[in-house]
Amino acid sequence: MIALKKTSGPRPLPRISVTKLGEYVGSRSAARRKTILVDQKYPKPFKTAIYNDCFDPLVGFFVDTSHDTAAVKAAILAIQSRTVTTETEEMRRQVNSQALDHLLKTAPSLPLDGIAFRKAPQSTKPLVIGGVEVSIRPELELVVTGKSGAVHYGLLKLYLSKSHPLTDEAGSYVATLVHSYASHRFTGPKSVDRKHCYVFDVFQEKLFVAPVNHTQRRKDINAACEEIASRWPSL
Predict the structure, then answer these.
(1) Which of 162, 180, 184, 226 has a 20 to 30 Å separation from 218 between CA atoms?
(2) 158 lies in which domain range?
């Protein structure tokens, strides 16, 4: 379940979500980059978690060893059957059922075989890069056992936004950050399988995989975070 966010004022220290950092690094628009930082420093006092109704069924689909779509279909039916009285409630009903419908369409092509999925801890420490706290919070941990019996780990980050789809650039940067986080989460790079560090843009039905050539991307991310840290006080 995605918790409601409550803030009491501007964030004094630089902090940004992984998806917004990916967008920031991949954006060529100076105005958009500034908007991202202002929104991150001055978050709205109350942010309703629009996608709460589809979140548990999404995670549950991966955790279920059979990856049975019947539970997802039942969740869609339950969401669509709810009585709504406002336009906001109707919008939430539509986007949550649509998200699950996109999962159903994508399920046959998702890399599920040979992977054990488990819920990731909800409370996780941010990744600190260039003086900026980057909130990663992956929803799923992946355990992959190779033919030799060696066990490797990965992470999957769900991205739920109908109005702001991830670009290829942003998706690659976010996947790079998920890979970096996995290397810290699972004690070292040798225990992490890069090929199983993912970002799943649900509405685009697109799975981003951590890229092989990540050296330059990590340099871009470090430089962006240093820039964010320097700009933060003046926002």
Answers:
(1) 162
(2) 12-235
Domain presence at residue 83: yes
Q: Tell me whether residue 183 is in a domain.
A: yes
58 inside domain: yes
Global confidence as pTM: 0.92
Number of domains in the chain: 1
Give the Cα separation of 149 and 146 in Å (integer): 5
Are residues 174 and 20 in contact, defined by beta-carbon separation less than 8 angstroms? no
Which segment of 34-38, 56-60, 120-124, 223-227 scores lowest on mean pLDDT? 120-124
In a domain, 6, yes or no: no
Residue 46: pLDDT band with limits 50, 70, 90: low
Lowest-pLDDT choice from 20-34, 43-57, 119-133: 43-57
* Mean pLDDT, the chain, whole residue set: 93
Beta bridge partners of 127: 134
